[in-house]
Amino acid sequence: MKVLLVDDDEEFSLGLSRLLKKLDIDTVCSHRTSNAEEQLKQSDFDVVLLDVMLPEGNGFAFLPTIRRFSDVPVIMLRSEEHTSELQSPDHLVCRLLL
Q1: Which pLDDT value is given to residue 95?
Q2: How much is the pLDDT for 81?
Q3: What is the mean pLDDT of each run of 10 residues along the chain (98 residues)?
Q4: Is the dihedral of CA 73, 36, 7, 89 positive or negative?
């Protein structure tokens, strides 16, 4: 399985990619929607993990761009930066909106 992770939080991205690697899931990280768009055009992914809030705008606003050239499933992520228990690598998955 190959995942594109689009999240501007580099520490979170690194932690989640390490976790996914342990599950034999290849992860490509992109910290900006412009980079993510190029990645999606160049490679096939099984799923996209997309942060809701990004420096270039709202992740939901990026969904139509993805749909112009791909029907890949997208799971939206959100940050709980003010929740201290979610800062631990053991709780990374708690940030997923399923």
Answers
A1: 47
A2: 56
A3: 94 92 95 93 95 86 92 86 46 44
A4: positive
Separation of CA 14 from chain center: 11
Q: 10: helix, coil or strand?
A: helix
pLDDT of residue 73: 95
Structure tokens at 13: 């991205």
Return all residues near 39 (Cβ < 8 A) that are at least 6 apart. 4, 28, 30, 45
Contacts 24+ apart (CB under 8 A), 82-90: 89/15, 89/18, 89/19
Angstrom distance (rounded) from CA 97 to CA 93: 9
The whole-number pLDDT of residue 58 equals: 84
Look at residues 57, 51, 93 and name the one whose alpha carbon lies nearest to residue 75.
51
Q: Are 50 and 35 in contact (CB under 8 A)?
A: no
User: Which residues, at least 6 apart from 80, have a Cβ–Cβ distance to it below 8 Å?
Assistant: 86, 94, 95
